Amino acid sequence: MKQGFHVLQRKARARTALIIVTGFVVVLVGAFFRAQILRSDAYALESQSNRLRPLPVEAPRGTVYDRNGRIAAENVPGYSVSILPAPADTVRNTLERIRPYLDLSDGRIDALMQARARYPRQPLLVEGTADLETVADLEERRADFPGVFIEMRPTRSYPPGASVGHVMGYVGEITSEELDLPEFAPYEQGMRVGKDGIERQYEGRLQGMRGIRYLEVDAVGRIVGSYGGTQATGSVPGQDLRLTLDLELMDWIHRVFPDSMSGAVVVLNVEDGGVLALYSAPAFDPNLFVGGIETDEWEGILTDPQRPLFNRATMGKYAPASPFKVVTAALALDMGVVEPDEVMPISCTGGMVFGNRRFRCWRPEGHGPLDMTGAIQHSCNVYFYQLGLRMSLQGLLDGGNGLGFARQCGIDLPRESPGTFPQSKDFWVQNFGYRPTEGEVLSMVIGQGPNSQTPLKMAQFFVAVARDGTAPAPFLVAESGDRPEGWSLNLSDRALEVMREGMRRVTAPGGTAHLSSLEHWDFIGKTGTAQNPQDLSRPHAWFTALAGPRGQAPEIVVVTLVEFGESGSAAAAPLAAKVADFYLRRQAGMPIDTIQTLGEHYRTGTPAPWATQTPEDESAEGEGGQGADG
């Protein structure tokens, strides 16, 4: 009996053990089935993700060409050094060890660690344009730098150099502030973006689309090879652009602009308003910024008193001085307050009395009686004083604002200054605390007073004088989409010809810019000497010109501004003449003559076949600002 009980007990234990073992087997089979069948793809993916690191494949930015197919910006092979995602301590340790090879400062390392903290799952770009020697040193010691990845990537290059700095702008690594902007929503840390100029204006078209490649690493994160499986995607290059610029002309301007002086040159195509040249001095080389500029070098640029990053052609505002007299003439003709051939009733005797003040002309002995052509030729203040009083201050304000002198031109660049020009009489109340009288018009009509314009704006106006009174908005990319509307003057062909004839006499014998006349071309213009509020003894020099083959319609408008040039005829007009002569000679297939203007012929003693008079016979320019005697 007792033996039978023990047998039953052993059987029960055996069954229990069998059940337990069976349970374990079922669990194990289930786990194996789940791991190898149900979750095999997930585990394979996890294993693969531990083995492979995704890396971006940089897209080449679009190439930028000028109107003749010359390259303004392109991509050249370069090397980048990146660190794969890793804990912060590991990344900092790696940075410290590669510091001697990449010359990393403490500030640069701190900035990189901040970037790593912001985007810890992305590769950290340490150097975007490493040189070949540095790359070789790191590759030789590859085992010492686990997690450091070196690859070839497209690097931006600007073959024309400094001559295109202000137009093209430059590229640099995207900042954390930029990444927060909606326009940069698809971008990632480490990408290069346009910072100014064409590079910034057309960033969306030039950037392209990044691809992805995978890098194989071992269990401790060391790079062991690369992986080019089906999951990799290629990059899409950015779109190419063709500018209206003429790079040969830009290079010529860079060569002939007066050494150590500041200013701007703008050249517009009369036919459509396209920008042939947009130059600011001093210039800067955009290639300096491609790989990231050193802190001390950047500080040097920022503290340079000549402000090389400041685009004087589109941002600089200056009193337009005597070239604005042509604007006054155009508005008066448009308003119908004067006839083209009409002689003003008050003859210029060196000044004119208005109210209890005498307003001077720049020439103390006066110009005598003048019509509009003669007034433009001699830049007679007294003639334009009378013209301004006929127009009235309100009439001048309405007309000037109609031509956009208080607005931007609308050029396709990221930065352009609007002009300073009162939109109403309230301007004087708000800025100077008094209600203006009609006497304010006397300074406004000769380009002084609360009136300052960019060289680009003045160039746009003279396009209208060269055409039929219409002025399209200047542009750099022909297919840039919707452009701002220009404006037009309701002027007859006769009225336009009267203004052009006045400008023609400026460069004719006896004119203020006769020494800047050219042998083969019609080169007509208007000199200007603008008061400089920073230093009244050193005025700025203007020259606004129309140029083209003799007897034909003007082809180009040239505007030159030389800061502290003191005299438009001495500083700005010869520069404009050399620019126009270069462009037109090249268009005609003629050799470029180094002795171009009449003044250069006289100074070098070479014959000038078109000269009819010696320099001593010319009138000196002294048309600075309006003077008044109490």
Percent strand: 15-25%
| Mass-distribution shape | elongated
Indicate the low-confidence ranges by residue numbers.
43-48, 615-622, 624-630
Rg estimate, integer Å: 35 Å
Largest sheet: number of strands, sense, barrel closure: 5 strands, mixed
Instruction: Give the N-terminus to C-terminus distance in angstroms.
Output: 145 Å
Helix content: 25-40%
Describe the structure.
The protein is an alpha+beta fold and 630 residues long. It is built from 21 helices and 20 strands. The strands form six sheets. Strands 2, 3, 4, 5 and 10 form a five-stranded mixed β-sheet that branches. Helix 12 packs parallel to helix 14, helix 12 crosses helix 15 and helix 13 (372-378) runs parallel beside helix 19. The longest helix has 37 residues, at 2-38. The protein is elongated, with a radius of gyration of 35 Å. The protein starts with a helix and ends with a strand. Mean pLDDT is 85; it is low at 43-48, 615-622 and 624-630.
Structure characteristics:
single chain, about 625 residues, alpha+beta, five-stranded mixed β-sheet, five-stranded antiparallel β-sheet, about 35% helix
